[in-house]
């Protein structure tokens, strides 16, 4: 594994980003790639339950809390007023892999596919104002541009496109 390839999925709320991410992770791992993901949340989130030991460690003031078991580990880093880490800082903390799929981080200058659904919270296309959007995946016909367009559910074709775009496959 060399420097990981990075590819993003952007879109408005309810545009199908998460469903596409999950299908792509499954497809890419079935193809033999080691895939990591980064999800950007625009709100406060917690992966810890109130009252759990690790929650109590964080509440007591721990800077980082690591939970380890025989099946996984998680490191929670409390910002405690510090600025959100940059995209590059987050990438630097990931273990080596073949591909990092990014959900969110709309403004990062990485190649990305725009997810569009008719039920989206916002139907305004992102592609016209983002030169890093290299394709569109939609649940409806796309007629507004020159970018490759895929059916939102055509996971194999989108995975093929990502492999070609990132150089994972020629």
From TrEMBL:
CDD domains according to UniProt: MobB (cd03116)
Domain (Molybdopterin-guanine dinucleotide biosynthesis protein B (MobB)): residue spans on this chain: 6-139
Pfam families: MobB
PANTHER family noted in UniProt: MOLYBDOPTERIN-GUANINE DINUCLEOTIDE BIOSYNTHESIS ADAPTER PROTEIN, MOLYBDOPTERIN-GUANINE DINUCLEOTIDE BIOSYNTHESIS ADAPTER PROTEIN-RELATED
Entry protein name: Molybdopterin-guanine dinucleotide biosynthesis protein B
Protein species of origin: Sinorhizobium kostiense
